[in-house]
Amino acid sequence: MGKHVIFGAGPVGSALARTLLDRGESVRVVTRSGSAVEGAEAVVADASDADRVLAVTVGAEAIYNCVNPPYHRWATDWPPVADALLRAAERHGAVLATTGNLYGYGEVSAPMTEATPLAATGNKGRVRAAMWADALAAHEAERVRAFEVRGSDYLGGNSLVGMVAPALAKGRTAWVPAPLDVKHTWTDVRDVAALLATGAQDERAWGRAWHVPSAEPLTLRELTTVVAEQLGARPAVREIPWSVAWVAGVFVPFLRELRETLHQFTRPFILDSTAAQQTFGLVPHPVADSVAFDLARQGLAPTADPATQR
Question: Theoretical Cys-Cys bridge with 211: which of 22, 49, 190, 273, CB 3.0 to 4.6 Å?
Fold first, then answer.
């Protein structure tokens, strides 16, 4: 069994650990708190501490970057983490698999493919684009084997479902800070995990970015309807006026950071994941399954056995 070292135990890191464990792999999960995933070795370390990162990745065949600093700290927290993990992969000869996102593309006017230019003008988008540029340069210099996977907004943890479901479950109206009728791609964290785990052991994945297999896009209203149906609730949802969210951002860092990514919800934001699906034979979870999984994580609805959700 190979050693797979995952940094971060959030929704993606946890899903990845379970995916690798199900494949019979030896898994180490590294977090600042020592968070555990059943069956994996838990290790305490700060991913920005380069010496500590080197120590906890000795013998690794693959290193996975599933870290996610707070939005308002990306500019300060991401560079040392990305650099430490890149150096560790280079030193140990491990594959570096990074969980990316779509921020680096900036504002788009067509479905995004892996060939879409990284043209972000916002701070967070530039940070993510620079991280990938550094990893790609190291790969092209044959210092490391690296790839990145990019998904859209997640289902399965830290998602919009978590924003609307509690209100719907209580028979109340859910409020969201975005237009309700614009098509948007949603990505299941388990599909992120599947692509990371597959790509780490398939040399066809290395040296480029891949879009995570994702289901057909839905508007916020349509997604809320799926949530309501599974809760047996009324699909009542309304948009928070952006002027209100903008003012609230003065006091709430998370809302303030959303200003940079507002374009992702005011116009169609659609991910084309054809390349990964055709290359690796991966199929995304249907949105209904993703919502059921998300609700189950919140303790609001049961989920099916993961082995039967394909």
Answer: 273
DSSP tag of 298: T
Phi, psi of 35 (to 5 degrees): -55, 140
> Global pTM?
0.93
User: What is the structure's pLDDT at 71?
Assistant: 83
Token output for 67: 């870290």
Distances in Å between the Cα of 212 and the Cα atoms of 100, 182, 195, 273, 294 are: 10, 21, 7, 6, 18
Q: Where are the alpha helices (DSSP H) in the chain?
A: 11-22, 50-56, 74-92, 123-140, 160-169, 189-199, 220-231, 242-248, 253-258, 263-266, 274-280, 287-297
The answer to whether 269 touches 182, Cβ cutoff 8 Å, is yes
Please say whether the beta carbons of 43 and 29 come within 8 A: yes
Residues 6 or more apart in contact with residue 187 via CB below 8 angstroms: 151, 152, 153, 154, 155, 212, 214, 271, 284
Distance, C-alpha 234 to centroid of its chain: 29
pLDDT per residue as tens digits for the range 141-195: 999 999 999 999 999 988 889 989 999 999 999 999 889 999 999 999 999 999 9
Whole-angstrom Cα distance, residue 192 to residue 250?
Answer: 33
Q: Helix (H, G, I), strand (E, B), or coil: what is residue 45?
A: coil
Dihedral sign, Cα of residue 204, residue 13, residue 7, residue 269: positive
Binning pLDDT at 50, 70 and 90, where does residue 16 land?
A: very high
Using alpha carbons only, how large is the chain's radius of gyration in Å? 19
Q: Which amino acid is at 95?
A: V
Size of the chain in residues: 310
**What phi, psi does 167 have (nearest 5°)?**
-70, -45
